[in-house]
Amino acid sequence: MSARLFEPLALGKITVPNRIAVPPMCQCRADGGLPQAWHSMHYAKMACSGAGLVMVEATAVQMNGRITTRCLALTDDAQQEGLARLVASCKSVAPETKIFLELSHAGRKGGRRDPALGRGTAAGDEGGFALVAPSASRYDDSYPEARALTEEEIFGIITAFAQAARRAGAAGFDGLVLHAAHGYLLHQFLSPVTNRRTDAWGKDAAGRRRFVLEVLKAVLGAVPEMPVMMRVSAGDGVPGGWTMDDAVALLKEARALGLTAAEASPGGLTPEQRLPEPSVAAHAGRARRIRSETGLVSYAVGCITDPMQAEAVLEGGDADGVGIGREMIRNPNWGWMAANVLHEAVQVPVPYWPVF
Fold first, then answer.
1. 184 belongs to the catalytic site
2. HSE toward the beta carbon, residue 45, CA cutoff 13 A
3. Could you tell me the pTM of the whole model?
4. Which of 77, 126, 161, 318 has its CA 20 to 30 A from that of 288?
């Protein structure tokens, strides 16, 4: 019997060759939002890892939506052309691998300096910028206070997501991921901790979901042929915050609009969070809830390091796919190793065929 890990998986109108995904992991090596040589090396390596799906890191839809001053953005022709070259490079060495792009806005967690230069918010002469959020607030004392968005600005960000989606399609990406977790702007709108608005973009649970659902509708309208995934928070880890129950309610509405797949991981909204120790079982349980309660394609992410762990998650019906992040950085040939352990075949670059 074939291993579940190496079975194809349908994502909307496309099919990925196996159930292994490389989740978005920020590299913080861009210059002016443009990908650099590091990105070409890193993503070609990930594309050749044996994974069926590689997700390119959080890419800001506005320049003031970057997590750090060295993060990718997709706001103009030059950035689109740079990402198009990146996709073409990956597909030239791993033609079977599907490449998705994660679209994001950092909100109040943006504007950090180049991590290579240390922690902290970037000053103006370091390329720093003013921060925005659903309500005036700051992530912690090391961040400046973010200004509350006006309704006009909210609509502007929704439009920016749609424009970035069109550019991603034109650049050759196979699908998109919306980042609604880890304390960034979409998550900030969802959580009652950070969204204290009293207008139609807050006020109650439906109002707090509105921004994310409007972004999703705009993106789906811009690229109706592309599958769209969502990374959603599994919980804030503070009393009165966003919960996994809230995530399920959001994803049910999102699926009705046309969302294809989702994954959930907790935390990132506030440094006051208190979260249980992460485990494969916890992440698999969240993936199972998404799969069983929403009908979406569900990816389990976090703590999976061994091919037999991944296979057990799939065999147990917890998820449709698995995300291998940190372990893929440590072992960029993880997919080849998994195929060997599970006695399966996987895409290998032609020059390496003699090795196998």
1. yes
2. 13
3. 0.97
4. 161
